[in-house]
Amino acid sequence: MISLTELIAALFPPTSSKTPTPEQLAILRHPSGPAWVLAGPGSGKTEVLALFALRLMYVGHEPFQKEPVAPHSILITTFTEKAAKNLEDRIGRYRAILVAAYPTLGVIDTSELKVGTLHALCNDILQEHRAASYQNVRLMDAFEQAMFVYEHLSAVKSDDPADVALWSAFDYLFIPRDWQPSYQNLPSKWLRTTALVKLFNRIAEDRVDVAAMYKADGHWRRIADLYDEYRQHLKNNHRCDFSELQSHFLSFLKTPLGTSFLKGTPGARGGIKWVLVDEYQDTNLVQEAIYFEMAGHHHHNLVVVGDDDQAMYRFRGGSVECMVTFDDACRVYLNMAPAQVGKFPLAGNFRSHPRIVDFFNEYITAFPSMNQPGARVSGKKAMTANSGIVGDYAAVGILEGKTIADAAGKFASAVADLVKHSIVKDPSQCCLLLNSTKESPRNAGPYVEALRQAGLKVYNPRNKAFLQQEEVQGFLGALLAMLDPSGQHIPTSNDLSQFIVDCRATYAALAGAHPKLGDYIQKCVKNIAAHKDQFVDTSLQEIAYLVLSCPPFDQWHSDPVRRVRLARLTALLESYASMPVLGNLNVQRGRMKVDDQAPYAIVAGWVRTFYHLFFGYLARSGMDEVGDDEVICPPGYVPVMTIHQAKGLEFPFVFVGHLSEKPTVGDAHNLESQMAAFPGNPHRVFQLAQPEVRAELDRIRQFYVAYSRAQYALILVGTKTHVANATGNAVPCGPKKGWLSQRLINL
């Protein structure tokens, strides 16, 4: 073991350009018990997490730590798998330095750290300990969960007119053009499926009291019935979804086997002694309960790191209130007074020019709603500029135009000038952030067109709906040309049939331009016909990869945008193909049989199911573009990103558009309000503001994240009307008319 001073000296010698700040060192000296780390943007929270883990494993003979902690007794959760990998890599790099300086430390195996997303760790631990409720269980992703609900739930399988009352109570889960209570019929089966998935996930994540739901009667009793039906189907079919996985794990922790995992076994491995949580602002109530249950056995050693001002995932079930009221959670779960909770601000910003820091500090506190009790962690310190970036220049400014096209032209000219004069080394150092990057006239279209006219390449993987992409439709059409050559099984549903027709047409165009593709598909059709009344030797997922080896798909692998989309599509196909057939758990859907009747194609039942399930899901699930974790802009391109994509990233020059965005009450706000009537833990009931207020807070946080991505310059882009905030309720421009234009320089 070594001292903390020795650890810091080895990792940050005098020649190093950085060293832990007093704020960071205070966290590293935290002795035990819960710690509340309020890490603002650019404050080095990943660094602190890595150093804290190293301190636990290597440091001893200190007032705050007598003996090192075994790596297997430390559990660290991150929000994404990418973040977990980055944290492990950083710990690994630092370990190598420490072992080089102190070879005896080499016996400590840091690979035994439990690092990952909470979902991944729950799954691994339940399997490792052979939890009774998780024996031989198949964990479903979101795609398979939707398939499962579609095929099993009575409210989807049957068209009971009595359910109109149920769906009318949750009409906000539907887009008005898709379904409204005034319609004479029920929502479509896929619309019902999507709504039920949202409801079931929210019930699990919010730890809703289902028994209390039953007593409420009416539509609440119906939802409680359906939720119990869903859970019974999961049990009967040995399935679990990601939300239920957390409930399984929480229940496991309270069993004798779970207690043994937490406390350890005498003479064997020790239990969990420290729990570290990253991005705690996006935690939900069932996750909160898990963390406190794990921390309840060894001195309450729970360290949570996050920033309530950067909470952006309410729409995915996150409850920023868990972060804001962490001290109250310690009182409820651990019987500890707020004064006993270590509260550590990380308020030094190592990313941005001082004027950028001043701007986003003023922005987040300018709104009256942000200053209401419960909106933010009380007593938060303002961020301070520690980046070392200096210079008396307009680090924060505005590009105004009479129209969006005019503003977009000025934006593209600015980027071109930065590249031309070598102010940036590569176009990828200039990023445009928008609320939506669809290339339509109201969204990214004018900006992307202006960049291209300026001779700049654009990286915009979300440039239009996923299913409208040429490579997506062409790939799906190629599969259909093989599996249903004549198109005789195409469903009659207008929206679904049109999507299928579009896919087949896109394939036909590609096959005409690339004869090798068409020749290969025809060869496969003939091969299938030669095996009448037999199972096809090649599975669906294998066929998919063979198609991808044909032109133009093989050439598109070099395109970073197309490659990501095709990878996502093949992952969905693999998931579908590996799913068991309804009623036969031993047969996978990817196994296909040839009909015994001419024209000897794949049997009609298989093809129809493929259309209704796989294509039905794609067409009606609102398939979003590639996930936030997958975006890596290649050199030579200007990245156009959503603000959510940019979370955790930084760029030398950041341009932010969509300044006219207003707060929008969404599904999550309404579900939160309604589910709050049935708290699973009556002692953890949040005093929620009205949905409209929460929507405003969420929009403020979203643009706070956007504004804090910039290193050297933050440039807002919009029309004169947008910047003036004529209506006074366009959140990106501040709390009132003229707020923005009074503070920033017009460039």
TrEMBL record:
<keyword id="KW-0067">ATP-binding</keyword>
<dbReference type="GO" id="GO:0000725">
    <property type="term" value="P:recombinational repair"/>
</dbReference>
<keyword id="KW-0378">Hydrolase</keyword>
<keyword id="KW-0238">DNA-binding</keyword>
<feature type="binding site">
    <location>
        <begin position="39"/>
        <end position="46"/>
    </location>
    <ligand>
        <name>ATP</name>
    </ligand>
</feature>
<keyword id="KW-0547">Nucleotide-binding</keyword>
<dbReference type="GO" id="GO:0003677">
    <property type="term" value="F:DNA binding"/>
</dbReference>
<dbReference type="InterPro" id="IPR013986">
    <property type="entry name" value="DExx_box_DNA_helicase_dom_sf"/>
</dbReference>
<comment type="similarity">
    <text>Belongs to the helicase family. UvrD subfamily.</text>
</comment>
<dbReference type="GO" id="GO:0033202">
    <property type="term" value="C:DNA helicase complex"/>
</dbReference>
<keyword id="KW-0413">Isomerase</keyword>
<dbReference type="InterPro" id="IPR000212">
    <property type="entry name" value="DNA_helicase_UvrD/REP"/>
</dbReference>
<protein>
    <recommendedName>
        <fullName>DNA 3'-5' helicase</fullName>
        <ecNumber>5.6.2.4</ecNumber>
    </recommendedName>
</protein>
<dbReference type="GO" id="GO:0043138">
    <property type="term" value="F:3'-5' DNA helicase activity"/>
</dbReference>
<dbReference type="InterPro" id="IPR014017">
    <property type="entry name" value="DNA_helicase_UvrD-like_C"/>
</dbReference>
<feature type="domain" description="UvrD-like helicase ATP-binding">
    <location>
        <begin position="18"/>
        <end position="353"/>
    </location>
</feature>
<dbReference type="Pfam" id="PF00580">
    <property type="entry name" value="UvrD-helicase"/>
</dbReference>
<dbReference type="GO" id="GO:0016887">
    <property type="term" value="F:ATP hydrolysis activity"/>
</dbReference>
<dbReference type="GO" id="GO:0005829">
    <property type="term" value="C:cytosol"/>
</dbReference>
<dbReference type="GO" id="GO:0005524">
    <property type="term" value="F:ATP binding"/>
</dbReference>
<dbReference type="InterPro" id="IPR014016">
    <property type="entry name" value="UvrD-like_ATP-bd"/>
</dbReference>
<dbReference type="Pfam" id="PF13361">
    <property type="entry name" value="UvrD_C"/>
</dbReference>
<dbReference type="InterPro" id="IPR027417">
    <property type="entry name" value="P-loop_NTPase"/>
</dbReference>
<keyword id="KW-0347">Helicase</keyword>
